[in-house]
Amino acid sequence: MVNLDMSKYSIITLEEVPSTNGYAIENVSFFDDGTIIYAPHQTAGRGRYKRKWIFDETENLYMSIVLKPDKNSFPYANLTQYLSVVLCKFLEKNFDLTPEIKWPNDILVNGAKISGILAESCMQNNQIKAVILGLGLNVNLQRHTIEKIDQRATSLSVLKGQNFDCEKILRGICDIFFESYDEFAGKGFAFIKEDYIERCGFLGKNITIREDEIKKNYFAKAIDDEGLLIVNDEFNNECKIITGDVLC
Ligand code: BTN
Predict the structure, then answer these.
(1) Domain co-membership, 186 together with 215
(2) How far is Cα 180 from Cα 29, in angstroms, rounded to an integer?
(3) pTM of the complete model
(4) Whose CB has fewer CB within 10 Å in the chain, the N or C terminal residue?
């Protein structure tokens, strides 16, 4: 039995908000490290590359973790990957699912996206003052809403045929996140590398990567010690991918 120090995080619940990330950024100076902004309804959720995060009238999990690390060597670049591993472990244990990670941090079930992660930094005097780590999980999103999304997507209710309590899910994810957070902060990507790679179903396959609407084809070879994606391009030259989306 793990003895959790519950003081590691605190939750602020809002019934509805345009964006939990936006709310966290606007009020960041009032929040301590480890504050979670949670809303079951979010009307203007933002995604990576200025995309929108879809919603309907159902309750879903929209959360933003406010982090204020106090050391320069903190592994900022791997935070979203850490959260993606946390979410996979939560879904495996509690929902008997086999989620996969699509580099760098989308979570898919049976090839359909169920969750996305967006980290945004708050800067002061050229230094990172806080990181807002946002996660959207399609919990009760309905099939007809999902069909409007421009990529294959799913929700827990579509997969399992019943609705779920978002607040219970939130607490389950936060418990796993904060249970190992200090160790991740100390060891960085090395701490999650094995767990991350074993969930990367696209490795060893031909993939398409999109960055700024430009699409290129590669062969996905490996994930390096920094969490970057190593690929071969169409001329068989090895290169490292730093940003972009794997489309598969
Ligand atoms: C993506 O896949 O592009 C990332 C989506 C991140 C969406 C979440 S929902 C909660 C938090 N608040 C936001 O406005 N965005 C993130």
Answers:
(1) no
(2) 25
(3) 0.95
(4) N
